[in-house]
Design goal:
Helix content is 70%, strand content 0%. It has 149 residues and is an all-alpha fold.
Length: 149
């Protein structure tokens, strides 16, 4: 089961990272222009353009790191990092994903990101997926198959 969870995290976040790199390079899918893309994937009230390309690339790198962190956590990828750092990393990822997932259901946050189609996509797909990823990170953290907690 642990292997399936880690592979699922890696696939979802790996694809998400590649998509962010595509946007950083100027790609427009799943929209036809920048305005529609910003309103589809960012959704902030009044948004008309995508964030800076360097910022989008930085987000892609962070997502890629999140994709491989569970493999580092389980020592499938060897690193000299101390166990406490791996644990802190898992805890931070857990909190970030749980927080973002829950935030999508908070009315005050929803009002700040009400552009369509983002608002509908967030309620139906983005927030539940991100919340699921947060629960997956939490499960890995709490089960701690490495026995170091």
């Amino acid at each position: 089961m642990t292997i399936m969870v880690v592979v699922l995290i890696a696939l979802v976040l790996g694809l998400t990272s590649v998509l962010h790199l595509y946007w950083a390079a100027g790609g427009l899918w799943p929209a036809s222009d920048e305005l529609r893309l910003a309103r589809t994937v960012i959704g902030a009230n009044g948004i008309t353009t995508m964030p800076n390309r360097w910022l989008t690339a930085a987000v892609a790198i962070c997502i890629a790191l999140a994709a491989i962190w569970p493999m580092i956590w389980l020592r499938w990828i060897v690193t000299p990092a101390p166990d406490w750092l791996l644990t802190v990393g898992m805890a931070v990822l857990c909190l970030v994903f749980l927080g973002r997932g829950v935030a999508g259901f908070v009315p005050a946050v929803k009002r700040l990101n009400s552009e369509e189609p983002f608002a509908s996509l967030d309620a139906r797909y983005f927030s539940p997926l991100i919340l699921g990823l947060g629960l997956a990170f939490a499960g890995l953290l709490l089960l701690d198959p490495r026995g170091i907690s």
